């Protein structure tokens, strides 16, 4: 059984070495839509794969890091990286280039790591990430599966190789979120989640 949750964010980038001229030399932005697809072979006490409400804490925070931020490949020109850090309070340093393909891999990787470290509270048995689809535009998306995350030809993904600006970290519910993930600390799901008011533009 699979469920899907949609997340949205606006992000700016340059994707070096690609074929599209506008894409590789000019900072530009996209309104991304991310489909996070989870699967399980057993349902929890609420007869759900995973309560959608539980996706509004750490996983939403980490995905929302990209919102109104610039992200760059940590192998980019040091002058460009320094300028991104100087002129944007919200930035993310990535160990891979910010193509739609890598957005789908990175978000799959983070969600998978968070779920693996989550202490479940409501009988969730074997919930895991099945796929992430990153829609970069209305016409183009990339879809990632577990094999793609593990594929080193596509770039090795290690928690320690990502960096978030102070402003990004300060807007998480827990500013220590990523540090805890790296330290392997458990995330305990709340036994009850409160409904977010209608009109929250980030989560549907
Ligand atoms: N496989 C990929 N191809 C391209 C990516 C990518 O991440 N993966 N990214 C880009 C650029 O970021 C670009 O801005 C988006 O390209 P494109 O789809 O061509 O955008 P358009 O808005 O021009 O698309 P239309 O179909 O004309 O609306 C390039 N390629």
TrEMBL record:
It is an enzyme of class 4 (lyase). Keywords: Lyase, Metal-binding, Zinc. Its cofactor is Zn(2+). It comes from the Bacteria. The keyword Kinase does not apply. PANTHER family: 6-PYRUVOYL TETRAHYDROBIOPTERIN SYNTHASE, PYRUVOYL TETRAHYDROBIOPTERIN SYNTHASE. Belongs to the PTPS family. QueD subfamily. Its EC number is 4.1.2.50. GO terms for molecular function: 6-carboxytetrahydropterin synthase activity; metal ion binding. The lineage of its organism: Bacteria, Pseudomonadati, Pseudomonadota, Gammaproteobacteria, Moraxellales. Pathway: Purine metabolism; 7-cyano-7-deazaguanine biosynthesis. It catalyses: 7,8-dihydroneopterin 3'-triphosphate + H2O = 6-carboxy-5,6,7,8-tetrahydropterin + triphosphate + acetaldehyde + 2 H(+). This is 6-carboxy-5,6,7,8-tetrahydropterin synthase. It comes from Psychrobacter halodurans. It holds the Pfam family PTPS.
